[in-house]
Here is the input.
Amino acid sequence: MEGRIMTRLVLRNLKLLEPEFGALQPGMEVLIEDGVVREVGERVSASDAVLDCGGRVVMPGLIDSHVHVMLSDVMIPNLEKVPLTLATGRAASLMLGMLNRGFTTVRDTGGADWGIRQAVQEGAIAGPRLFIAGQAIGPTGGHSDPRRRTDVFGARCHCCNAMAFGMATSDGVSEMRKAAREQMRQGADHVKIMMSGGVASPYDPLDSLQLSMEEIRTAVEEASAFGRYVCAHAYTPAAITRAAEAGVRTIEHGNLIDDASAKRMADQGMYLIANLVAYYAMKERAAEFGMSGDMLAKNDLVIEGGLRSLEICKRAGVKVAYGSDLLGGLQVDQSREFLLRQAVLSNLEIIRAATTTGAEIIRQEGRLGTLQPGAHADLLILDRDPLQDLGVFQDQGAHIAAIMQGGRFHKNRLA
Here is the structure.
């Protein structure tokens, strides 16, 4: 069974975890045909191919709504010396790790392009389904500008500079319009803009406000005209409020959010993509990868707000998706986010963040993050019940008995 699409397969003897329902459904069967879930019930249509799940839990594949598959170094400026061939090879390894951990879909927020997305679609690279932003766009001197202070303006070759490949600087309305249009020409599913300072950028204060309101509205206007949306890197209440006023759809990070800015998000129907694990991993290990004291000091400013941001958003009614935002060698901590959120949220709330909410953000409701009929056959067969024990997602996928993506088993130790 492993490695090929099962034309018609029945999963039997399982407990179904459909996140929207919120409780295990024992004694269920699932019929998968041509990579799609066709039937779910106590008895489905017969098939010659049957997999006994041994009473295990079956649930939709996980969705990580904030990753960077091409950013293979914790110190982003180091990518300046990395050719795209090497960056792609590293990305293949990073994406394989994500898929092994049960993440069958990821939303890349800067770096991945249509080429690597297509490589996954064609099966040339094993990895999650990719929804891409192309280059993340920000102003000169902002979070998308990782140049050294000794660098000067000039053309940078994308084919031998993975750093430039993932980031773009844009100053003024006309440049923003062109940059946003270019990402969509290149197949972007969403447009990423930088609206405040960041931890991993060397020179911008965390509370700096980046891009003018006219530039932000221009990005939103262009994305909307193309049937896409804007996601914004933002930490502070001021940056989040500006994003809401301009029509941005999702806030990435948002650690320093307050009640007022959360209410603005709720009123606008916006989403927050939180990624607590990135800050814990950087605090514990980023120095060994070369992260400077100034960057780590900024990290300390946002790490305390992580759990508080989840509480504030829950109180305001803002939906929060699962994100990791880990760079390079820190990406092995991707599933640790499940455990960190337990201090504030229930297991079911955390699972929904990594399934149904993630599907809403990428506009794939009913197709991903669910196992209802008509959905892609992206699923996990688990050794333990995640409603009781989120540790089942730890240890790099060791407790996941099988991983299916689009009707093809990536992993199956039950066969």
